[in-house]
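Q: Protein A?
A:
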Amino acid sequence: MYRCEVKVTREPLLSLPCVFSTEHGAVVDFFGVVRENENDTTISGLEYEAFVEMAEAELGRISEETAQKFSLGSVIVHHRIGFVPAGEASLFVRVSARHRGAAFAGSQQLVELLKARVPIWKRPIPAQAHSA
């Protein structure tokens, strides 16, 4: 049975409990973490904006496409919006599949499709602009 969960949130992204399946021998987690350097500039973080309903709908579509292509058993995609400080995760992806090759390939494709198609935009915040 295929399971999909997509969410655009302002909350910090933490690893979710993993319920293992006897059908799926591979689970891949991916965290996209904000680096402290963007385009050769030191930043305090990234400001993310999105059309939340459109972003979640598109995340659902790309999750379904990827699940079909790689026979994934489950897909979870959470993306943060608002200010995300350097060193914190802005993206969490978890996929499960019968075999590791499909899980790794599915995870990679999902991230690539997200970057290309989901209406989420980022703006770097220079380090001095966000200091207290």
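Q: Protein B?
A:
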Amino acid sequence: MLRKLLTALLLSLLSLSASYGQTAQTTQNAAGKYTDYRRDGAPMPPLVFMSYTDTTAEARALRTMKKYRKMGMDTTYTVLTEKDFDNGANLFVMMFNPTCLHCEDATFMLEKNIDLFKKSKIILLANKVMADYIPDFSERHHIAHLPPMYIGLDSSGFIDNAYLYQALPQINIYGPDRTLLKIYSGDVPMDSLAQYIDHGKKGKRRRR
């Protein structure tokens, strides 16, 4: 009899502990410690990415040299953050896979219409595991010669925070205050994107 009472008391305490844990978690979320970066009006997640900027043969040769490998240097990447894109215009962040045909088509579409992007910038953001594919993708689309467009690798968990896990590419559009205006997943026509572009003043295309 005593054993049954002790067992019942133990089960009761375990149930109470579990209930308290759930309440604490709910309170923590309600207190604003969790941010849903996928909802309209949400702030942009922290953005740090390795921007691929140099496609010259000389840079590729340097990258293969032992002394550069030992020093951990990579002459083709530059660290950029959201502060580098604080220009008072909308920002387009396309999460993509360089081996994805739909991503390839979307990039060709943006490349073809790049003259529309006078103020707005475009970031093509891939997972770090795609590093080996970025150089060829960048050169195939001449990204080094398209000033509004940047390509690189996610270094801050931006994709984990913002990706809907529905389709690729996913294009997130952020306003000048870097709050989320719109998300497009999969194939999207240029007409849909165009309404969010800040055109700015007309000017000649220049090298970055």
